[in-house]
Design goal:
Blueprint lengths: L1 E3 L14 E3 L2 E16 L5 E16 L6 H13 L5 E5 L11 E5 L5 E4 L5 E10 L2
Antiparallel strand pairs: 1-2, 1-5, 3-4, 4-8, 5-6, 6-8, 7-8
């Protein structure tokens, strides 16, 4: 997994490129439609779709991170927490891109869990607007 973002709430500020690379343990997708249904007196239904979104629930494998890497994950969370777009490539790496997509972080979906052995698991949901 490769994440590339523009820091809007800078924590690291080391001048390096703003990307995170990790392995995914979970990568599940679901579609979401926003719209409404109108039922006429005749019983016919009419649908109005406002937008179609694809959501991906992502969870990393347990990662041993340094304090700088942990700060980078937290910077990503704070920089993309309010709908800022970032580039997400689920199966790509820095050396070899697979299928990078412009996505948003779902509001309040980013979770950071510390395990007993000191490793971290990061989970979040990305949202891609299809139409």
């Amino acid at each position: 997994m490769l994440i590339q973002y523009t820091p809007t709430r800078s924590l690291v500020g080391d001048g390096s490129d703003f990307q995170i690379e990790a392995k995914l343990k979970r990568y599940d997708s679901s579609d979401r439609l926003e719209g409404k249904e109108h039922k006429a007196l005749s019983g016919q239904s009419e649908y109005t779709v406002y937008r179609i979104e694809e959501e991906y629930v992502c969870q990393t494998v347990p990662i041993k991170v340094t304090s700088a890497e942990l700060a980078r994950w937290r910077e990503f969370k704070r920089s993309c927490a309010f709908g800022e777009f970032f580039t997400f490539d689920a199966y790509g790496t820095t050396a070899l891109a697979d299928d990078p997509q412009q996505v948003q972080l779902k509001f309040k979906s980013f979770k950071e869990k510390r395990q007993k052995d000191g490793r971290f698991i990061f989970s979040f949901t990305t949202v891609q607007v299809i139409a």
